[in-house]
């Protein structure tokens, strides 16, 4: 056995002991259904190699409920560039990088893809990133498509310094779009972090001056996830809390984002990073994220929380959680997801993850599941 093999064997042994220790001391407050080893549910969109790290994807499902896009960056928070297309709702994928502007590969950190409709009814696809050229370059460059992703062109940066571009976006009742993102002082990734809001009334071309909507003493709110209540009259925003000393945070708006409640703790089961939600046809919420709940047996892995909007508002734990993918190697280097819901209630959750216990770096992988087939034991 050579030195590299010896070192690898030692790492595996230590990892196994640490995992058993974590499980032995876990304090899960919700039932956990583990489907992370059910490989028939999994689709590898972009495989990592010993040299290439595939990171931080987001996805977009078009109105035909079949066409799906995925975008991501190379290396942790690195350069954009890759794009994949599925014509069968995420079962198979092909790379379409050749459609993209050459300069898109200089856009930095966690690209996010959205479909926005302007006041005249024209739909466009947008991919926003954090910065142009370098992480300290002009804030929020983008590429845009006017033909549902067949061709793309580069757009000028918005000029908003940020750690990441829009983590989430919601269409308001007046047809405008509310985008949320976070940053620290001078746009840097350092404490204190705050969450900012800006609004576009023209389908994504121009945005209002950003304003702070979440800042919490001794906490670092970031990576906002905004969505509507089932009746459409309230906005909920889940927030990663970057000190990771307690639960995540949440806040609410009853006036279309004009004002927000003071952030408070989420239930334990929603504690995590980079939340992304969908509603199933029976009104339940499925929210996927990187688990950061203290005492959780799946902390650092990719999970889904299952519950109701009423559970969130009333700070109840919810129904159960699902372990979607196991993160091998350094815990927590996974879980930024794109999450889509199909007409048959299939959830397609896509993330970056160290998919196998070998020398390959992170891959972009999706998991498919339905709640009626993934239930905790009675």
UniProtKB/TrEMBL annotation:
- Extract the Gene3D superfamilies matched here: 2.120.10.10
The Sialidase domain is annotated at: 107-289
Record flagged with keyword Signal: yes
Kindly indicate whether the keyword Signal belongs to this entry.
Answer: yes
- UniProt xrefs under Pfam families: BNR_2
Q: Which residues form the signal peptide?
A: 1-26
Q: Which UniProt keywords apply?
A: Signal
Q: What InterPro entries would the database entry show?
A: Sialidase, Sialidase_sf
Lineage, top-rank taxon, reads Bacteria
Name listed for the protein in its UniProt record: BNR/Asp-box repeat protein
Q: Which organism is it from?
A: Rubinisphaera italica
Organismal lineage: Bacteria, Pseudomonadati, Planctomycetota, Planctomycetia, Planctomycetales
């Amino acid at each position: 056995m050579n030195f590299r093999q010896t070192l690898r064997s030692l790492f595996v042994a230590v990892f196994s002991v640490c995992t058993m220790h974590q499980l032995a001391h876990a304090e899960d407050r919700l039932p956990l259904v583990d489907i992370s080893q059910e490989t028939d549910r999994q689709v590898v969109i972009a495989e990592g190699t010993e040299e290439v790290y595939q990171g931080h994807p987001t996805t977009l499902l078009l109105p035909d409920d079949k066409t799906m896009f995925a975008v991501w960056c190379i290396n942790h928070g690195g350069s954009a560039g890759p794009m994949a297309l599925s014509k069968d709702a995420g079962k198979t994928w092909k790379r379409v990088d050749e459609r993209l502007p050459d300069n898109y590969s200089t856009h930095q950190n966690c690209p996010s893809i959205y479909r926005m409709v302007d006041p005249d009814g024209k739909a466009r696809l947008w991919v926003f990133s954090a910065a142009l050229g370098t992480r300290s370059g002009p804030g929020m460059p983008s590429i845009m498509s006017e033909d549902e992703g067949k061709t793309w062109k580069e757009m000028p940066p918005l000029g908003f310094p940020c750690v990441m571009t829009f983590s989430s976006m919601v269409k308001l009742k007046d047809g405008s779009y509310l985008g949320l993102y976070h940053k620290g002082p001078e746009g840097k990734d350092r404490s204190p972090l705050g969450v900012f809001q800006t609004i576009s009334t023209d389908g994504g071309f121009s945005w209002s001056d950003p304003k702070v909507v979440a800042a919490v003493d001794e906490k670092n709110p970031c990576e906002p996830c905004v969505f509507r209540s089932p009746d459409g009259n309230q906005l909920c925003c889940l927030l990663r809390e970057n000190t990771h000393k307690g639960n995540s945070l949440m806040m609410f708006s009853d006036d279309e984002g004009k004002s927000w409640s003071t952030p408070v703790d989420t239930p334990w089961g929603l504690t995590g990073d980079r939340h992304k939600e969908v509603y199933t046809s029976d009104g339940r919420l499925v929210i996927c994220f990187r688990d950061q709940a203290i005492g959780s047996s799946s902390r650092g892995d990719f999970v889904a929380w299952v519950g109701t909007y009423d559970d969130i508002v009333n700070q109840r734990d919810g129904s159960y959680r699902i372990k979607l993918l196991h993160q091998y190697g350094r815990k927590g280097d996974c879980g930024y997801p794109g999450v889509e819901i199909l007409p048959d209630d299939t959830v397609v959750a896509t993330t970056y993850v160290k998919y196998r216990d070998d020398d390959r770096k992170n891959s972009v992988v999706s998991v498919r599941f339905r709640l009626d087939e993934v239930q905790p034991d009675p």
